[in-house]
Design brief:
Main location (chain B): membrane
Radius of gyration of chain B: 31 Å
Largest sheet of chain A: none
Low-confidence stretches of chain A: none
Number of helices of chain A: 15
Oligomer: heterodimer
CATH class of the largest domain in chain B: Mainly Alpha
Mean pLDDT of chain A: 84
Strand content of chain B: 5-15%
Shape of chain B: elongated
Distance between the termini of chain A: 31 Å
GO biological process, one term (chain B): transmembrane transport
CATH superfamily of the largest domain in chain B: MetI-like
Radius of gyration of chain A: 28 Å
Strand content of chain A: under 5%
Strand order of the largest sheet of chain B: 1-6-5-4
Pfam families (chain B): BPD_transp_1 (PF00528)
CATH topology of the largest domain in chain B: MetI-like fold
Helix content of chain A: over 70%
CATH topology of the largest domain in chain A: MetI-like fold
Largest interface: A-B, 120 and 124 residues
Structural class of chain A: mainly alpha
Structural class of chain B: alpha+beta
Number of helices of chain B: 16
Helix content of chain B: 55-70%
Organism (chain B): Paenibacillus monticola
Shape of chain A: globular
Subcellular location (chain B): Cell membrane
Order of helices and strands of chain A: HHHHHHHHHHHHHHH
Order of helices and strands of chain B: HHEEEHEEEHEEHHHHHHHHHHHH
Number of strands of chain B: 8
């Protein structure tokens, strides 16, 4: 390698510009085709998968080929950006910039025309509907997370000691797979109420069997109806907590627990003094995950009550303000409130990343 | 010896307690599943648990009372007297139950208890919910009404059309990016990756308003392309992070020897890394696929009420709102939407769990 700096050939420059332009034009045409296409959806899907695999692959292929026409020192610098380019462009356009724009919009009025400073934020804490949404969301986060983590841990320990661990774990975990909308239908049926003696909803049938009065669980008895919605979250998310805890429990060394047993320690104190400290990191991870998830809860409330009967949460209120009332000011502010709520988790994640060596 | 015996006893207790919990967890889904096969009128009359063998009052002998019995006063049947209200609701007499058969004709039926074993099950609900055709429905009182189906099959294909590309595209793009973050050195690498980690838990609500504005300007609203791109963007941080964790753990020698042979990064990635990453790709692919399949919010915002593109979750949510008492449609529709997730769950459980655990790191 005598020459330290090769000259960039004109051919390479022209080629790479041509390839870049060709990519933009071809994919632009594909973009317009998919946007305006009215052909059979199934055919669209097949074409889209082809484009998603081959087309996207071809973008990378042609661009890296173009970069390879350049001498080494340029190639090394440009190639990484070809690899991360598409991801960065999509993330920037559809996630990072919108987040900043939402922050900006949250300081403006309903139609995004007049600057109103912080008054949207003030309104959120004073407006009755929004304050209810905040209260309910706290209820969801607190009760839901506590119940999921507790039940998850309990069932993980029970399953670990039972003789049909795999089956039990499958059953508890299964609701994780289905959508919140389907789960909403399932539970709406369970809570179903009709006046009279014969109840087709399981819940009311049990209540009347024991001589109680049937109730419309999700609409009456506010604010307790929120708890009946939270039960759905518990039903769905406990399986998640259980699977993670189950893996962690298996990592607790058996000899430590055996030694404690020999010393006469009770199972309960082994649980609190050995097992809990040993899996505390896992408990923290599971808790934050479920908290983040619960903060954004939307589908369940939307399907079960539509936010009526004082069951509104922040995400449903966001949808209402943004989509129904077209109040972009309140809508953006609610989104930013959600963002502020997860900010600690973002910071924890970044710290964790740095601790693990970062790069 | 004593200790061992005690342990065995406690194991039985554990098995029983866990069994009860499992039954509680299973009941909601079971109720939906059973109900979806019951005739529409049955669902509204009796609880779904009645399809299992149970005792029931069955019509027996008819007792004809004299025509001029005063319904307001005590009514004498077989030597005992009852009130009109009692006979309306049914009243116990010895082993049988007395109930009006035809109040006007003054006939009382003496019902007897017997086992009902054979449940009435039907596939009609599935037919009606899948097609958009009109069908006749027999009500409990014998009258017939005409109802329109829901055309869920169209929504099923729409969901598939959205979910497959919305899984493939982000997984491919994210894998390329993850490779660069893991094995290439370039200015801005750290900053960009920190942004990706920060985006892991970001609520997508912060992006919806501006993105919808852009989409309206570009004419992407209600199009497949728009929703693919949205799902791609919202899934990318997690998929990139997941793939980074996997690809960066691959042994370094692998790359060095490939480089010695003069392979380019592109060749290394497509010939070496992708095949090696199949388990990770499957895990995160399943996670992303189910996320899109089960999604409601993103479709609701970007598809709106364009029926030709509507996905199943929207359709079902609409049904809940507009036909909340048509349980024969709701239960079968919900079960159809659950078919795909449940199939994946039972067939690919290993990858499914791994993908979910990977998703949990984002907490």
């Amino acid at each position: 390698m005598a020459q330290t700096k090769q000259r960039v050939s004109l051919r390479a420059v022209l080629l790479s510009i041509g390839i870049l332009l060709a990519n933009i034009v071809v994919n632009g045409l594909i973009f317009m085709f998919f946007r305006d296409s009215t052909i059979n959806p199934l055919l669209t899907a097949v074409l889209a998968v082809l484009w998603g695999v081959l087309g996207v692959y071809l973008i990378y292929y042609t661009l890296t080929w173009a970069v390879e026409q350049y001498p080494d020192y340029i190639r090394k610098r440009v190639l990484p950006y070809v690899f991360i380019g598409p991801a960065v462009i999509i993330l920037g356009w559809l996630l990072v910039l919108p987040a900043l724009r939402t922050l900006y919009l949250s300081f403006f009025d309903a139609s995004s025309e007049k600057f109103v400073g912080l008054s949207n934020y003030a309104a959120i804490f004073t407006d009755h509907l929004m304050a209810t949404a905040l209260r309910n969301n706290l209820l969801w986060v607190f009760v839901g997370t506590l119940a999921c983590v507790t039940f998850g841990l309990l069932i993980a320990i029970l399953a670990d000691r039972s003789s049909y661990e795999k089956l039990a774990k499958s059953i508890i975990f299964m609701p994780m797979a289905i959508s919140f909308v389907a789960a909403g239908v399932i539970w709406k049926f369970i809570y179903y109420y009709q006046p009279g003696d014969s109840q087709i909803g399981l819940f009311n049938a049990i209540v009347t069997y024991f001589g109680g009065e049937p109730q419309a669980w999700t609409s009456m008895i506010q604010p307790w109806n929120n708890f009946f919605l939270i039960i759905i979250l518990i039903w769905m998310q406990t399986g998640f907590a259980m699977v993670i805890f189950s893996a962690a429990i298996k990592g607790v060394p058996e000899d430590i627990m055996e030694a404690a047993r020999v010393d006469g320690a009770k199972e309960v104190s082994i649980f609190f003094k050995i097992m809990i400290p040993y899996i505390s990191a896992t408990i923290l991870t599971v808790t934050t995950t479920i908290i983040v998830f619960t903060l954004k809860i939307f589908d369940v409330v939307m399907v079960m009550t539509g936010g009526q009967y004082d069951t509104e949460v922040v995400a449903t209120q966001f949808y209402r303000q943004f989509f129904m009332y077209r109040n972009f000011g309140y809508g953006s502010t609610l989104a930013i409130v959600l963002l502020i709520a997860v900010l600690p988790v973002i910071i924890i994640n970044l710290r964790q990343f740095r601790k693990q060596g970062g790069f | 010896m004593v200790g061992k015996k005690k342990k065995k006893g406690s194991k039985t207790v554990v098995n029983i307690v866990l069994g009860i919990i499992c039954v509680i967890w299973l009941l909601p889904t079971l109720g939906l599943f059973v109900s979806s096969f019951r005739p529409a009128a049955d669902i509204l009359q009796t609880g779904w648990w009645k399809v299992f063998p149970h005792q029931e009052w069955k019509a027996g002998d008819t007792i004809q009372l004299s025509k001029d019995v005063d319904l307001r006063g005590p009514i004498e049947v077989n030597g005992k007297t009852y009130t009109d209200d009692q006979l309306k609701a049914g009243v116990k007499a010895d082993d049988s139950r007395l109930i009006w058969e035809n109040r006007r004709a003054r006939t009382v039926n003496s019902q007897e208890q017997g086992w009902k074993v054979k449940p009435d099950l039907t596939l009609d609900n599935y037919n009606n919910v899948l097609t958009g055709k009109e069908y006749k429905l027999k009500e409990a009182d014998g009258s017939e009404t005409i109802q329109k189906g829901t055309g869920l099959s169209q929504a099923f294909w729409n969901t598939l059309t959205i979910a497959v590309p919305a899984t493939v595209i982000p997984v491919l793009i994210a894998s390329f990016a993850a490779y660069a973050f893991a094995w290439l050195r370039f200015p801005g690498r750290k900053t960009l990756f920190v942004i990706i980690i920060a985006m892991l838990v970001i609520p997508i609500q912060v992006a919806l308003i501006p993105v919808l504005k852009d989409y309206t300007a570009l004419g992407l609203n209600g199009s497949y392309l728009g929703i693919w791109l949205a799902h791609t963007a919202f899934g990318l941080p997690l998929v990139t992070y997941f793939m980074y964790n996997f690809i960066s753990q691959l042994p370094k020698d692998l790359f060095e020897s490939a480089f010695m042979d003069g392979a380019s990064h592109f060749t290394i990635f497509s010939k070496l890394i992708l095949p090696l990453s199949v388990p990770a790709l499957a895990s995160i692919g399943i996670f992303q696929f189910l996320w899109v399949w089960n999604d409601y919010l993103v479709s609701l915002i970007f598809i709106g009420n364009q029926p030709s593109v509507q996905v199943m979750s929207m359709k079902i949510a609409d049904l809940v709102g507009s036909r909340g008492n048509d349980w024969h449609l709701l239960t079968s529709a919900a079960f159809i939407s659950m078919l795909m997730p449940l199939a994946i769950f039972f067939l690919l459980q290993k990858y499914f769990v791994r993908g979910l655990m990977g998703g949990s790191i984002k907490g």
